[in-house]
Amino acid sequence: MTNNKNVLNWVDEMVALCKPDKVVWIDGSKEQLEEIRALSVSTGEMVKLNEEKLPGCYIHRTAENDVARVEGRTFICTRNKEDAGPTNNWEDPKVMYEKLGAMFDGVMKGRTMYVIPYCMGPVGSKLSKVGVELTDSTYVVLNMAIMTRMGQAAWDHLGDESNDFVRGLHSKADIDEEKRYIVHFPEDNTIWSINSGYGGNVLLGKKCFALRIASFQGKNEGWMAEHMLILGLENPQGEVKYVTAAFPSACGKTNLAMLIPPEIYQQKGYKVWTVGDDIAWMRIGDDGRLWAINPENGFFGVAPGTNMKSNPNALISTQKDTIFTNVVHNLDENTVWWEGLDKNPPKNALDWKGNKWDPESGVKGAHPNSRFTAPAINCPCISSEFDNPEGVPVTAIVFGGRRAKTAPLVYQARDWEHGVFVGSIMASETTAAATGAVGVVRRDPMAMLPFCGYHMGDYFAHWLEMGKKLGDKAPKIFNVNWFRTDDEGHFIWPGFGDNMRVLEWIINRCDGKADAVETPIGYEPKPEDINLEGLDIDLETLKGLLSVDVDLWKEEAKGIHEFYGKFGDHLPKELAHQLEILEENLNK
Length: 588
Ligand SMILES: Nc1nc2c(ncn2[C@@H]2O[C@H](COP(=O)(O)OP(=O)(O)O)[C@@H](O)[C@H]2O)c(=O)[nH]1
Ligand SMILES: C=C(OP(=O)(O)O)C(=O)O
Ligand SMILES: [Mn+2]
Description:
Blueprint: H1 5-18, E1 22-25, H2 30-42, E2 47-48, E3 58-60, E4 74-76, H3 81-84, H4 93-104, E5 112-120, E6 129-135, H5 138-147, E7 149-150, H6 152-158, E8 165-171, E9 181-185, E10 190-194, H7 199-202, H8 205-221, E11 224-226, E12 228-234, E13 240-246, H9 253-257, H10 263-268, E14 271-276, E15 280-284, E16 290-293, E17 298-302, H11 312-317, E18 323-325, E19 328-330, E20 335-337, E21 349-350, E22 356-357, E23 371-375, E24 392-400, E25 410-412, H12 416-424, E26 427-429, E27 441-443, H13 456-470, E28 476-480, H14 500-510, E29 517-519, E30 522-524, H15 539-546, H16 550-565, H17 573-587
Parallel strand pairs: 1-5, 3-18, 4-9, 6-8, 8-10, 13-24, 24-28
Antiparallel strand pairs: 2-3, 5-6, 5-7, 9-10, 11-15, 12-13, 12-14, 15-16, 16-24, 17-23, 18-23, 19-20, 19-21, 21-22, 25-28, 26-27, 29-30
Helix pairs in contact: 2-5, 12-13, 12-17, 16-17
The protein binds guanosine-5'-diphosphate, phosphoenolpyruvate and manganese (II) ion.
Guanosine-5'-diphosphate binds next to helix 9 and strand 17.
Function: Catalyzes the conversion of oxaloacetate (OAA) to phosphoenolpyruvate (PEP), the rate-limiting step in the metabolic pathway that produces glucose from lactate and other precursors derived from the citric acid cycle.
Family: Belongs to the phosphoenolpyruvate carboxykinase [GTP] family.
Domain Phosphoenolpyruvate carboxykinase C-terminal P-loop: 223-584
């Protein structure tokens, strides 16, 4: 399938280490994938769902202790500890290779090793990169087949000589949490993942390659790998402007990427097109603008809360050729269910643990981080530019997170440098996407805290550097918060489709068509410039959503000082200066 010696030698080496009984090279053909599906049904790894209602769909359950990313067991192994920075777990690569080498030794005895070639990004694009994942899990093969452009095309993209591919090794040997490791060796383009079967830990093209390894490559090669959705907003004249947005895991990327505008906007002819829902790779184009591609080929979305009202495009995307993980299995219909799908939980069903489930019991049927893996081509609003090797030009970059108070509905950075500051001080409540407490506010710069493959201070410097190169062609930078709550803890802003009203202001700002007011933290809309037509939110409530509480922000500034302190002399002086400006503004 490939004559690339770099690939062949490395596969030989890993086969010698893992000692599988059999090695199967994945060509991505329909026949081969169908065989693997049948195999995975025969071993109980997956259950085939109702072919009439959910054609080509399967359900899978992970182990109960293996349902989310494990940040405490995720490592960046650079030769110098300093290069991994204060926000990553680190170990000496030699020590880690030895330790994990012992765990991988013979781990695939009696098992099959699958060799998965995949291309991140459109095949043939200058922005795309190849990875190879070796795994003993058919679930991984079938998910990678949805999430990436997998098979022969990837070998063709790589060519016979290139050594520029990411070497991924995964085994699901033992599900003991204490033996679980998700390890990156960015200097060797290598990822080793052992003893997990959860998507974020084992679909190595996604967070491991497309963010952690790629961010490191981007720093060295002059581009950016970001935890961002990409959407195209079409106006009534048929012009499309592209927006990227970075929100932490389970904070609304997939939903915003597939937004359906409210009725009044649809009537005027506004549309949103999805280019990507999780990851953006961005380079400066020949025209000096920033261009983005989505390196993925599918959606690994959070199931709970997805329904025909909140996100019909996502739900429709899951109606065929989809793999569901850790959702409720409706036994009468052989279909799936999750909290927030509809008001009719199935009576005869298994919960995400595989136990008989009683919807009246008060126990959740689906895991809060249960997921669907759905092909991008299923999405009714997939962009015509999805496969464009050039990508799309970015007009605006949006940061955001879950904040019950502090952050207003939307504000704009004064310039790129201030925008980098705004991204760097992002904070958000933790979610079920990673193990650990949920709802605790933590700093998560650019939504990259768990995904930056090098020193985060140097990452900020890279952002500043990109801004210098982009000059006046740089996208405008904004911050949003859909999650402000009232005194009873209810979300004030309706969110979802109505986020269109905020996007409209953002695009109008970029076009020089909307005014703004200056606040201590940046530019905000004049309340009357946010269209509230058809909403039961009055101008006073909107003013509340836009308010900047100076006392809260003074506290915030203290927190930023503390956070910045971690980065020592890696913190760019521009950001320290921006913090001074913020404090001056707050004390005015
Ligand atoms: N209140 C509110 N919740 C939202 C909004 N957008 C998404 N969510 C919820 O946030 C959770 C995660 O959303 P998702 O789009 O899957 O996040 P992702 O992991 O960043 O892609 C789901 O429970 C959504 O229903 C919004 O605008 N407002
Ligand atoms: C795949 C994941 O992504 P997200 O929640 O950002 O969609 C994850 O966090 O495991
Ligand atoms: Mn998502």
